[in-house]
Amino acid sequence: MRRLLPLLIAPLLIAADDPPLIPPPIRAMLDAALSSGNESEVSTIVKYARSADPASGDAVQKIADTWLAERQRARNERIEEAGPLELWRGRAELGGYVTTGNSDTFGFTGVIDVTREGLQWRHKLLLQTDYQESLGIKTREHYLASYEPNYKIDARRYVYGAAQFESDRFLGYTDRYSASVGAGYSAIQKPALKLDLELGPAYRSTAFTDGTVQSSLATRGTMALAWKLTNGLTFNQNASAYLQRYNSTVSSTSALAAKLIGPLSAQLSYNVQYESEPPIGRVGTDTIGRASIVYSF
User: Which of 22, 138, 202, 296 could share a disulfide with 27, CB 3.0–4.6 Å?
Assistant: First the structure.
């Protein structure tokens, strides 16, 4: 009998070590979520599977964790092997108008805003132009180009460098060069809501239309908010400030984009730029509203 006892107990121990079977309905939903490739859907299935059948919850979690780890490994491998011209994502924006007859006006706006997301580095490039003329006379001419590399410390914190060039004769300056370094923090990281904040010292040199040149240290701060209101409607709020002894600048752009078809969206935006000490004869606050088509890639 003593010899037979281990043989009788062994199957029970083996059964106890086996993971519990996942109920077919839960397994079917899990497989469908995995096939979709949507990580948020997989997380939702795991959450409700634990509530519906706690006994198999660990098994469901293990399958999901293995799937996520494999996706992350493949993603990292793809990023590491990518060339310098790959992995760029962003948007191209174009808007304009022409009127003839009682008034003869022409204007257009163009924006290219792209980001390259690497494992340790993030690169941001922004090119923007606004041009308008009425009866052959220029009434607006604004150009902006900026480049910002970020080095990621962890999932939320990073350090940045930023270089920017601007020109806007109607705001009172022909050339403005800015350079800054500092710290950034991703305060909100949710699928539908993201908020990035940056702060650091800067140096600016501005050549005004009256011939004067001002160069001084400044404090630079930025905010970038992206809010997905619905599947087809997004709101973005971007603001920046250069605070210095002489002329300080505060700029804010609010944009509402509605998805049209495929990568195309229609966008309405409103920009406000404030100069604390514009040249004599210039107004300190300038605003512009835009209606444009946006191509996302």
Answer: 22
